[in-house]
């Protein structure tokens, strides 16, 4: 069976696992039921469940620990405790400002270091985000897209900085703010910007990749700012012009 046909055959199972993750019914550590339990629950073979989990792991949406099982998201990072402390001392636009300082450079590094199979995964994540229905699914695939870029830059200090911001971004209030800042036209713009980032990385052009990522994040920054009350202290935050 070809890879594309295999992906089609396990897609319904993949969606069921994602629905389970989004349901909020997992344990606090995000551990998924065993393959046997999932196979019984979905009325499919264990092999099909295993292939679906393989696909989700490749996309950075689950992770496995030998002898322990499969878990939603990514392994716990020591930055988590720090993120929890910082979250109450910052706001959504300050986090976007920090992302503007870090993620363009991650994209630039990816233009030199991302492997062909990783680039194919990035294209797939961009398409999934574009086709997603509902704010939770959009958030899920958008996060996976940016997370893969951070990982494939292969720079541990920058990845740790990204992980800190990624953790802070899970603030429920800010997730709702990002959802309000999205519309059907803006989702089309974001998809085009994601494609531009991908093509710059594929071309091996670090500067073009930096510019594409900076343009994308600036667009999202402005959309979020427009959703804030001008009386909000965060409203006065403006994107930092790193070219001056």
Major sheet size, sense and barrel closure: 2 strands, antiparallel
Instruction: Output the strand order for the largest sheet.
Output: 1-2
Q: Categorize the overall geometry.
A: globular
Weakly predicted, low-confidence segments: 1-5
CATH architecture assignment of the largest domain:
Up-down Bundle
Number of domains: 2
* Assembly annotation: single chain
What is the CATH C level class of the largest domain, in words?
Mainly Alpha
- Structural class by secondary-structure content: mainly alpha
Rg from C-alpha positions? 18 Å
Number of strand elements:
2
CATH superfamily of the largest domain: GntR ligand-binding domain-like
Structure description:
With 244 residues, the protein is mostly helical. The chain folds into two domains: 3-72, Winged helix-like DNA-binding domain superfamily/Winged helix DNA-binding domain (Arc Repressor Mutant, subunit A), CATH 1.10.10; 79-236, GntR ligand-binding domain-like (Four Helix Bundle (Hemerythrin (Met), subunit A), Up-down Bundle), CATH 1.20.120. Helices cover 69% and strands 3% of the residues. It has eleven helices and two strands. The protein has helices at 3-22, 35-42, 46-58, 79-87, 92-113, 116-131, 135-152, 156-168, 172-180, 184-202, 206-226; strands at residues 62-65, 69-72. A hairpin with a 3-residue loop joins strand 1 (62-65) and strand 2. Helix 1 crosses helix 3 and helix 2 (35-42) packs across helix 3 (46-58). The longest helix is centred in the middle third of the chain and has 22 residues, at 92-113. The N and C termini lie far apart (53 Å). The relative contact order is 0.12.
